[in-house]
Amino acid sequence: MPPLLEIKSLSTHFFTDDGLVKAVDRISYDIHEGETVGLVGESGCGKSVSALSLLRLIPNPPGKIVGGKIFFEGRDLLKLTEDEMCEVRGNKMAMIFQEPMNSLNPVRTIGWQISEPLEIHLGMSREEGLKKCVQLLTDVKIPEPATRVNAYPHLFSGGMRQRTMIAMGLGCNPRLIIADEPTTALDVTTQAQLLELMKNLTRDYQTALLIITHNLGIVARYADRINVMYAGRIIEKGTAVDIFKNPRHPYTEGLMASVPRLDYDIKKKLVPIEGQPPDFLNMPKGCSFHPRCVYVFDRCRVETPELIPIFENHEAACWRNVK
Amino acid sequence: MSKKTEEQIEPRRISRIGPKAILRGVLKHNLSRAGIVIIILLASMAVFAPLLAPYDPNAQDLYQVLTGPSTDHWLGTDNVGRDLLSRVIYGSRVSLTVGFFSVFISVCIGVVLGLIAGYNGGVADMIIMRIVDTFMCIPFLPFVLVLAAALGPGLKNIILALAVLGWTGFCRIMRGQVLMVRELPYVEAARAAGASGFRIMFKHLFPNCLAPIIVAVTISLGGFIMLESTMSFFGLGVQPPTPSWGKELRTGYSYLETVPLFSIAPGILITLAVLAFNFLGDGLRDALDPRLRGEGKKIK
Amino acid sequence: MLNKDKILLEVKDLKMHFPITTGWMFKKTIGHVKAVDGISFEIARGETLGLVGESGCGKTTTGRALLQLERPTSGHIFFEGEDITGMEEKALRALRKKMQMIFQDPFGSLNPRMTAGEIIGEPLQIHNMVYGKSEYEKKVKELMVTVGLSPVMMERYPHEFSGGQRQRIGVARALSVRPDLIVCDEPVSALDVSIQAQIINLLEELQEKFNLAYLFIAHDLAVVRHISNRIAVMYLGEIVEVATQADLYRNPLHPYTRSLLSAIPVPDPIVEAQRDHVLLEGEVPSPVNPPSGCKFHPRCPIADFPRCREEKPILFEIVDGNHWVACHGG
Question: Per the confidence metrics, is the pTM higher than 0.90?
Fold first, then answer.
């Protein structure tokens, strides 16, 4: 079965006054029907830009998708016209954003906003749309959905707004939902509720889920496969179990060692990754991670490594794996 | 100790906050560049007036009254034979001086009161704001004219009259900014460190609230020059024989049909000055805003 | 609870109620936001007390109350035995040398128009602790090296530093007056994951070097775990559990603590697959109108009615001096 989404060598560049920023530099990965894939990286690594690129929502100027292919259900999204792309957005591919406070229109009711994509893509009438809304709100466990349909967003808490976003995303039964840091702005307990909800719903609706986050715990709990991003490139790919058990890129390894964990009995010292993430305007030569790498050797400073398969379904972009 | 961190430190970006960066930002736009050039020219005109003016602006030549442009008098002469070009050149001194000083005094009063009102809140804020409201209820132009008439003509009095009403705008702007900035964590950090109210107001709040004030200043300069011209137009302002753009405009009004240049020349200069300051204000606003809202774009 | 001699800070029944007013001219109070509703705790010299809770639980307000950035509505705060509640500004200034704060926002907590050197040295100037420019510069450079910044960066502006470096500037600033206690208000929440560890390690090193006490406020139990000796868990303005770091994680007693721990995913898929996930229903109630009795009762999986709805549980000791919990179910 061909994958639902196949990204090949996608590049998105920003042409700024200070120089060229290769926010996304030739990334490739795929997502299968119904699976949950995690895209992990810290702030500034380009993961949100890559998600926006999938939906072709990059502001132009200053950004531009300069290369690659995005095959979704067999079609290259980069070759579609804007009208055809509009048909995909919200319908076949939906996105949930990070800031629940800002993602909802404050002057429209919840019902109006959720039924908007239903009316546009599925041709429903307002009444049909609102009925479906109530059902969706029930699915996302918002209490008293029949009354809430007519409420305005400012009455909702952050957690409830995110649930509304999830309801909006699921409305047209998309094949893929992209969740860009969906719980970062929320409390821990709300985060847990929401993620469980998303997991159950995507399983019930058989939707694929792309979770973009910097939180290793979230991808450990929910993702089947993981892509690790650093400085605009994917530097490691594999199943969740593989990557956590046997990280083959020093950055991934460093992340695991530096993240505080709940489950160690003995208080282990955190081992931070030294240095700072690179400046896109001033990228190091060779491997972009080499200035911070504890294993660095000569080749790293000169040649940029590509993703090298190590085991089945496990690749890493590091010269250590090539001997 | 994390040694590597120190080595990693490299200059992240060349641009810095400060006059140089702002200047660069302003110079990017053609309009504001034009504005700066014009302002420099006009200022030079005022400063070097004695060198530039071909004649003594007050020298009357009753044999050459109301001539049009000629080789002797490039812009012609006025109703008592004084060279118009010289009068217009010297007129820049009055107009620019009035504009500059009245704005300067307004800003001083308005900024200090705005700082106090915004930072202290409570009673001080209420009193100051009610005063501002009262002043703002009074129609600007008539009040300035009445005040000028009451104080009598003369350079100092116009400046005073303009300043007395002009400060309210700056006060409001400053207060608004202060209300925003005082909630920022670094102000709280200063309080936590034990900083006194004064220190917070002048070291922390003031520099960070300046941006909209600077923009307002440049635009007000244009506005106040206009006002001076208006006042002179109505007969208040500097006494004869001192020329000012507004005075000349006024006097030339009677001779529009015969010697239109009499009014048009100072008119053009007033327009130029106001435009130049407005262009500069626009450019400054663009240069200052994004720098203060966040340091450059962040890629996520 | 703790050795009386070693106690640096003691908080007794602290309450912070913020009035809600209507009307613009003649303000009328129609209610209160009970941000902090009667908490008590102690911090000894050189120890770290972690204060954990979610948004709205009052932990940040507590931190600010300690530094008297907000005046407490009622209750007492004792510092080195002296009651500092409601102290005059002038007297407080001397106190500010002993208690400092590190803020959450590495971007907003530094004045963008001051250089790093000026920011770090400002407390020194305020308290007249240096004489002359050269001594000032020497001290500032020393501080920068102590927190891992290169002294040549003294003349740079905050926007030229990265998030982690800015936070180091904040730490240096707090450290400049050699305080005894530093309130760390979510100091790593806004930082990248790989940088968080750097700052946490830095804070631990400094604590050892200068015998600092910390009140470490955070919402992330995993982060707090590494740096705290004891941890207090807050919910809706009250402390529901206090225990040593080891005890809290090994044997959480309060149902809220348990669900908080359960909600935090562990970066290990195999461990995760085996964990129980205790999910709470509903959301955190508003601090304006908190539930009666035990504030946690509407969401509590083991709530016992009518007792939990009517009777407010008080913090009582389970294990000798080391583990306290406020729950009827205990």
Answer: no
Spatial separation of the C-alpha atoms in residues A218 and A228, rounded to whole Å: 13
- How many Å apart are CA C69 and CA B169, to the nearest integer? 32
Q: Which of A98, A102, A84, A107 is nearest to A47 (CA)?
A: A98
Q: Judge: A275–B12 Cβ closer than 8 Å, yes or no.
A: no
Q: How many domains does the structure of chain B reveal?
A: 1
Domain extent for B109: 23-45+82-292
Residue pair B208/B195 in contact by the 8 Å Cβ criterion: no
How many alpha carbons lie under 13 Å from residue B160 in its C-beta half-sphere? 12
Q: pLDDT tens track of chain B, all 300 residues?
A: 333 333 334 444 444 556 666 677 677 778 888 888 998 999 998 888 888 888 888 888 888 788 878 887 888 888 888 888 888 888 888 888 888 899 999 999 999 999 999 998 888 999 999 999 998 888 877 887 787 778 777 788 888 888 887 899 999 999 999 999 988 889 988 988 888 888 888 889 988 888 889 888 988 888 888 888 777 777 777 777 788 888 888 888 888 888 888 888 888 988 998 888 888 888 887 777 655 444 434 444
Residue B15 in any domain: the answer is no
In chain A, which residue's Cα lies nearest the Cα of B28?
A17
Is A149 among the domain residues? Answer: no
Interchain pair A272, C201: CB under 8 A: yes
Chain A contact set for C54 (CB, 8 A): 187-190
B66 in a domain, yes or no? no
In a domain, C90, yes or no: yes
Q: Does ipTM top 0.90? A: no
Size of interface A-C (CB pairs under 8 A): 132
Tokens of C210: 């200068």
User: Residue ranges of the alpha helices (H) in B138-154?
Assistant: 140-151
CATH number for B136:
1.10.3720.10
- Residue B134 in any domain: the answer is yes
CATH number, residue C192: 3.40.50.300
A56: number of Cβ within 10 Å: 17
